[in-house]
Amino acid sequence: MGEAIDVNGTRMWVERRGRGSDVLLIAGLSDPAEAWQAQLDGLADRYRLIAFDNRGAGRTPLPQGRLSVPLMADDAAALLRALDVPAAHVAGFSGGSLIAQELALRHPGLVRSLVLMSTFARSDAYFRAMTGFWRWMVEAAPSPRAMLEAFFLWVYTPRAHADGTVERMIEEALAFPHQQSVEAFQRQLEAFETHETLDRLREIAVPTLVLAGEMDRATPPRLGREVAEAISGAVFEVLPGEAHQPFQEVPDEFNARVDTFWREVDERG
Fold this sequence. Notes:
Blueprint: E1 2-7, E2 10-17, E3 21-26, H1 37-42, E4 47-52, H2 69-82, E5 88-93, H3 95-106, E6 111-117, H4 125-140, H5 144-151, H6 158-162, H7 165-175, H8 182-193, E7 208-213, H9 221-230, E8 235-239, H10 246-249, H11 251-268
Parallel strand pairs: 3-4, 3-5, 5-6, 6-7, 7-8
Antiparallel strand pairs: 1-2, 2-4
């Protein structure tokens, strides 16, 4: 059961589940806390999980003025403090992984470890062309369904399109009662595409696992490798046959991998 909590000057929607070591789950572009449902269900017997709606997604309002990754990282830090969590394992997906990077840089004492899924440290020409297309696509699509059908071509595997997973995701997204506005989508996207941490990632000192999908078109493995090479001691792994969202497509595999990583960190103290 979720609740709205006063965080960093806004009412942020938060879902909490389970018991054990604290884990903060940070969602990506457009996604509410429910994007992590397979982790909230599958890991709650071992961890105290916290998922939330970023500004402009789900039930957390879009702020006035410019939206930025540092602002959303400060939101995540303020949320942990509001919940009396001294430090947490932090997992971020796509845009959420950018927030996780900034959280570790701006509030290092709050982060025990990092899992960065489908991540990058700075955009390149291909990425900017892709997100430029997304920016007008969300306005020009003839219907919300058509927009999702186009957008999901970038983030799910051909397998997921063939086996009905994508159709199920579309139906769930269309039924969700807290739809994101076009403005909120575009402002979140602008924040993510201007992200730049490559020259600062060497400051991150916590254990870090960087995961990339072999078939990811949005954030291909070369971008994740660049992040891992910039963080001392980071482990980089490519998930064969997976695309941008393996935590949803193959949740058992994803959950097992992050569980092993977090257990290793806990054992090392």
